[in-house]
Amino acid sequence: MTLQAAIIPVTPFQQNCSLWWNPETGRGVVIDPGGDVERILAGIEQVKLSVDAILLTHGHMDHAGGAAALQAALPGTPPIIGPDRRDAFLLEGLAEQGAKYGMAARAVTPDRWLAEGDSVAIGGESFDVLHCPGHTPGHIVFVNPALKLAIVGDVLFRGSVGRTDFPYGDPDALIAAITEKLLPLGDDIRFLCGHGPASTFGEERQNNPFLR
């Protein structure tokens, strides 16, 4: 594998903010900086990461609430990329989301929205963008089939799936995205989710009670 990764749990929700980089160049991205920006900056410094971009899978505060502050704190003001434009209302309301939980979060407008069929560079590797709604309307997933790697945010977890009990949630769309877009990519695809331990699509296809 040509990428290295570090996971930094952030916010009281222990969201898996992740750093991904090419060890030869030291260049890479931060995915889903939900908060605890000082901790994220310390992680960036520890691994000597040059941040090319900040990627967002969706617009919930524990994934995006620290994006604006992190962008402002990093040299070169790396662009914020994603999610799909259908999560704009969530990103615009990040401060209100945070206030409900006593957390600092800032509204953010991405420098680039993403859509199904787009691609993004992560440490020099190209990842496909899949639109996987249900948890939020504009949730996206990053996949590199050659590396057998996916970064799925809150779509799929080890033994569970993303919440859909929001006014904008859609359980049918969520399960359809998992079964029609993710699982067909192959049982050997490893994935990092937004909370908790990583897994593989094969493990979840066989054992995840929400997919039976």
**CATH architecture heading:** 4-Layer Sandwich
- Main sheet record: 6 strands, mixed
Whole-number total of structural domains: 1
Q: Please give the share of residues in helix.
A: 10-25%
Individual helix count:
7
Q: H/E element string?
A: EEEHEHHEHHEEEEEEEHEEH
Task: Provide the low-confidence segments as ranges.
Answer: none
Largest sheet strand order: 1-2-3-4-5-6
- Bulk shape: globular
What is the number of beta strands?
14
User: Radius of gyration from the CA trace?
Assistant: 16 Å
Could you tell me how far the N terminus lies from the C terminus, measured between alpha carbons in angstroms? 32 Å
The CATH superfamily bears the name Ribonuclease Z/Hydroxyacylglutathione hydrolase-like
Main structural class:
alpha/beta
Mean pLDDT over all positions: 97
CATH class identity: Alpha Beta
- Give the strand content: 25-35%
CATH-defined topology: Metallo-beta-lactamase, Chain A
